[in-house]
Amino acid sequence: MSSLQLLWFFLIGLLFSVFFFLEGFDYGVGMALRLIAHNEQERGELMQSIGPHWDGNEVWLITAGGAMFASFPYWYASLFSGFYIILFLTLFALILRGVSFEFRAHALSPAGKKLWGWALSIGSLCAPFLLGMMFTDLVKGMPLDAGGNIRGGFGDYVNLFSIVGGVAVALLCLLHGLNFIRLKLTGELRQRAQALTKILYPVLFVGLVAFAGLLLWQTDFFSKRPLSSWLLLILIVLLSVVATYGAYRDKEGLSFIASGATLIGVVALLFNGLFPRVMVGNDPLHSILIANASSTEYTLGVMTIVAAILVPIVLAYTIWSYFVFNQRVDTKKVVSDK
Amino acid sequence: MLVLGVSMLSLARFQFAMTTIFHFFFVPFSIGMALLTAIMETIYVFKRDDDYKKMAKFWGKIFLLSFAVGVVTGIIQEFQFGMNWSDYSRFMGDIFGAPLAIEALLAFFLESVFIGMWMFTWDRFKPGIHALFIWLVTLGSSISALWILTANSFMQNPVAYRIANGRAEMASFSGLLKNPQLWVEFPHVIFGAFTTAAFALAGMSAWRLLKHENKTFYHKSLRVGLWVGLVAAILTVAVGDLQTQQVIKDQPMKFAATEGIYKDSGNPASWSVVQGFDTKNKKVTWSIEVPRMLSLLTYHKATGSVKGMDTINKELHAKYDGKYGSAINYYVPPKTLFWSFRIMAGSGMFFILIAVLGLWFSRAKKNTLQNQRWLLYVLGISLWLPFIANTCGWLITELGRFPWIVYGLYTIADAVSPSVTAGDLWFSNIMYFLIFTLLGGTMIYFAHRTLVAGPDALDGTGYADTTVDPLSKGAFSHE
Ligand code: HEM
């Protein structure tokens, strides 16, 4: 394994981490539409809180996919064709939620608004659930043939472990979204979001224990890389404890950072366990390794230079855009306080 | 494997055609609408004529609708190479993935972040700065076209690669960008995109003018559309001619099919305006011809003969049989290519004509456009034409490359995913079809309603007129 290959494995993990951190709260807000909003007006307010950002957040997923194609084409080919139906349904969910913002804004009738609000919520629930399932299956191991193609049946995709994994990821996104709402909104919606986090965090801990148990039983994480796996697992639990603490102490900023970091922790745990493979075969001989799934050193080098130049620029204006939509808080306050 | 008489390959190809064609209704329209909106807002910045601000906001709404559908159908494109064409991805990933990843990093982020900025900050920034945001969106979407066409150009005309380890490997990144095919294909597509939005916008304005609504507003909009459309259409046609030269050189079979010639032409070569085909016996049944014209189009000279499909077929067999066997069919579908080319090129000429007429009759000195109802009708109906022209263009480009997915290197039949089943494809094809119908229908419905409501309507979209910052604390604390 070359250092460029290692770097790109890390970068793919990083791209998925940023994706889950950012789009995670979008998904959560989408789900929260059904849980804490009492009328269309409130749903509209929730949607506006992510209005300027959701599209940019989703680009992280597209970038992760594109970067995987560029750096590990054999991984991209095997994963995307192997999880055909799951990814197709994910796309479907992303389509529904992607148009819902614009279409809901244009819908004039209450029924129309309702319809596109539901499209957002269902899409926002299904996307993280399905991606959670896929990543869980990925680390559990799939029936790969010698050509790197998955030859799986229904049970290989849908099983107790993958369902728990999907639910866990969806729940983490929901909590992350609720923390975002606590950070961005005021009044009743914010209070309801906080009340709901207090109920859901205990549920999350049950979910995490179940997931950890299944991870122990169904994967080779703890035999192959015990130390790092345990550390990451403990970190994930600790971060959730911090987020819960923030929920009880009105520290929404702390909760938000902690719930985002939890999602990153989960991605880190999965990628750590995956290493040095990119696809885990039920037959270890058929696993696909970082070492032989990648593009040439030349292409990886080109991509490294490109990423080194572009990623900081992208981060800079993305952060600036969040900053712009925060600044208003103060200016407005100043104006109205006068 | 055959299910219900349809092969996996056909299903995968159908899916690619359906998703890309649908996606490409919205892409050029969005790119061009971003440009038009940017131009309108810039005129406002310099002239401080509020009509132009109103125009930017109003047409911006229709742009945003189209952009939303473009984005969600674009994600499909990013995923489907892996999903449906995994062996292609394995063979081509080393070359094909990089432009895709760069497209996301360089273009998608720029577009999506600054669209958010543009939508929600009308009252937050100085007009000049605010206009900059929409220019950045225009830039982002044009760059996106550049990178995806870098990938497509390689498939048309592979350059700067080597075959090693059972795949195509990138020999030089700059070589990839220096592909001559790219530098005709990219301008043709991007000017085509400007043309598309310009005539769509002019057409929509024409319908409102026919209804005698907001005459100054739609008159000004129409003129912006026609000016941009005129320049863009001339450039599209001019680059189209250069692209033809490229095709003659690199893919002679494609060219022969677009001109419908089986047998080598005489010298000088005459050009069929229209003709009948007997595809079974590979014969032209009747034709209306213009003498010497084909020599002119091909070589820009009054003489010279053009190779027919039969000769080219033999040449291709001689060249590739060693590697791919003699069973391969090198003929491309001549009828589709022939007619697609005529519709595309014909619309190009037609656009130039109606732009000139429209601009002439609506000139400031003597504006009689409102009396030329026939012209308004023509402009109104032509709003659909660029979408057809674009689709025809892609049919030529992609079908004309048959049997290759990467010209000369890799066949379409080898590219498809081995693990995906016909059942998967039936399911996804049907679902895509249904959701596309829903998306397209809804988008047209909303766009039409926005148009009917007019620029002064207080609408539910709340974007253009948002004075409440969505994210400020207290923005929603209603007593
Ligand atoms: C006289 C006018 C035109 C000529 C001579 C022309 C020529 C061509 C040729 C030769 C191709 C195939 C290129 C290849 O396979 O590599 C092509 C493709 C295409 N054309 Fe045109 N074209 C004309 C007008 C237009 C117009 C008006 C539009 C749209 C508004 C358009 C849109 C396209 C598109 C989208 C493609 C596919 C992408 C590409 O390969 O560039 N064309 N055109």
Automatic annotation (TrEMBL), chain A:
Q: Spell out the InterPro entries in the cross-references.
A: Cyt-d_oxidase_su2
Name of the protein: Cytochrome d ubiquinol oxidase subunit II
Mark the transmembrane ranges: 6-25, 83-103, 115-135, 157-178, 199-217, 229-248, 255-278, 298-323
Task: State its location(s).
Answer: Cell membrane
- Keyword terms of this UniProt record: Cell membrane, Electron transport, Heme, Iron, Membrane, Metal-binding, Transmembrane, Transmembrane helix, Transport
UniProt key word Metal-binding: yes
- Give the superkingdom in one word: Bacteria
What membrane topology is annotated for this entry? Multi-pass membrane protein
Principal subcellular localization: membrane
Q: Which gene encodes it?
A: cydB
The family classification in the record reads:
Belongs to the cytochrome ubiquinol oxidase subunit 2 family.
